[in-house]
Amino acid sequence: MARRVPPGRPAIHDPRRLRGRDQDPRAGPEKHPGRERFRTLSYPTPADVTRTAEALTARYPGLCRLSTIGHSRHGVPLRMLSVGRGPRHALVVAGAHPNEYVGGGTLLELAHRALGGERPGTVWHLLLCLDPDGARLNEGGHRADTLFGHYRSFFRPTADEQPEWAPALPRPRFLPESRALLDVIHRLRPYIQISLHGTDIGGTFAQLTRDVPGLDRTLAASAERLGIPVERAPLDAMHWPTSAPGVFVLPPPGAPERPTAFPENAHRSTWLAPHAHGGVTAVLEVPVWAAAGFADLAPHPAPEQRLRHWAERLRDYAHTVRGHYERARPHLPDPGPDPGFSMRRAVAETLRVCGPLADSWDPAHPSFTPLPGLTRARTASIEGFARRTPLRAAAMLLRLLEEYTPAPGTASQRTELEALVARWCAAYSASFTATWVPVDRQIEHQVNVTTAAVEAAEGHLAPS
Hints:
The protein is of the alpha/beta class. Helices cover 40% and strands 13% of the residues. It is built from 11 helices and 10 strands. It has helices at residues 46-59, 102-115, 132-136, 147-152, 176-188, 215-226, 303-328, 339-360, 376-404, 411-432, 439-460, and strands at residues 64-71, 77-83, 88-93, 122-127, 192-202, 205-208, 242-244, 247-249, 280-290, 435-436. Strands 1, 2, 3, 4, 5, 6, 7, 8, 9 and 10 form a 10-stranded mixed sheet that branches. A hairpin with a 5-residue loop joins β1 and β2. α1 runs parallel beside α2 and α6 (215-226) packs antiparallel against α11. The termini are far apart.
């Protein structure tokens, strides 16, 4: 039976469809490539992105170079498409978080723009997917058309299995993917690194490792034109100074960055590597479902009550999933190379962070951390984390029981978990009146902000 498409959403088509001559690589190279654009109604998978990069390299051998910069933990090649010629280098990274799908489409559009003459004198280095192993565990999510569908294919690795964050933990871990990225930055000395990210429900915002004046104008104008709210108080950048609406600049070393429940430190992450060569990193977020509440700067009328409410709700949600986890424990995969164990670790770590996260924003708890600006936008971000974090754990636990340990004795628990995930997804979406952002708009916005960041950084940081 065909899947029903929600009202207002077009049917999902083959993500490899291209308009213009780039649809057929056998057409041969063109001497002067035009401003042909990548178009898609669903997210291209890493395999789709690689095939298109190979086609572009075959068509434009003088302008495109496809290289292998390393291999993943499971031996998958890490591919990078370099487009253009010149003394300046811009690096754009997709797939750092495998549950965030928009980056691949953004890279393909950037490649087409670079072939059309975008930023002459700059070589665009496009890292196709930083975590292909994690991406393999998210297959299916690229074509999900509901929040429930998104979470039915969900996998988010632990921080020490995320290439950008693994070096930034109290006990650093340098994954082969992290090493490959750091080596590329050291070799190319890019004046800007763009890391492409996304969120399920929320708004758009940018995190900068140093200020890039002028970026905010494009972010705001693009968001307004495309109907995407600008997120004003994301928990990810809770203590980062704001240089403009939706633009957050990394605080000095030693200053608070994120909730204390999160062990990551941006100053030790791959984001800071371009600083050794005078460069900067911009992390660009775009939502799959837009929610206006994340842009609302009105003061919340009862902030402490709201904080206590969502601290208790998060504890309750985590308790529910933890009960399912303990019940399922005898059936879960043991340590080893099986990808199911990575998912089991992710479930356990996601549950572990719930308690400290709730404590950090509970005014009645000794570890409460005062929050700046308790606006409706801030409380929306807190509610988003309170709903999203245990939902992730429940969704991954359900996948474990379905795909990696489908024991007959877990059938009833699988049914219960699926109903729980469906109920939580519906409540999450309804609470924010979330509106789907068409994939083309997500890509267009991320491309707009990326090119603006590259242009702005070029004026301040690039070598002459």
